[in-house]
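Continuing the batch. This is chain 6 of the set; chains 1 through 5 are on the previous pages. Same settings as before, nothing changed between runs. Recording input and output for traceability.
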Amino acid sequence: MKSWKDFSDENPVLSDLGKDLLLHSRDYVGLGFIATLRKDGAPRLHPVSLVFFDDHLYVFIPSKSPKCADLKRDGRYAMQAFPPAENEYGAEFYISGVAKCIADPLIRRDIISQTHILVGVREQLFELSLDRAMYTTLVDQGTLNEHPSHLIWHASSEMLSG
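Output for chain 6:
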């Protein structure tokens, strides 16, 4: 597993493409859909706001939310960027990895004070580490030759394309 900073250091192009889709031109806060695993092993999908801070990727999740219980029990997740309306190339960005519960009140305080986000007292902070990232665009969109093109990164390898 790698932090967003490690991923970005290894693959700055893919990291920048993904960050642009996650943030939608905002400074710190982005939107995505996070998939977690329920207790019975079935997937659960949730919209979330995510925060980039100090080259790390975080989510604040209400402590009574099913997704919070899912991540505390089994930290594995997958996330898809919320697609922007002006997405003319059909671009998509996906990451997966493990969410780690962050109990350090100083990290929480710094994120809130420096990004000026509104966070409830009972919201739990998780850092999202990555084991995979994929950026997809449509080539020859709207033609008979339309097909996806992928940039893929794995934590244990260099960037692949296909």
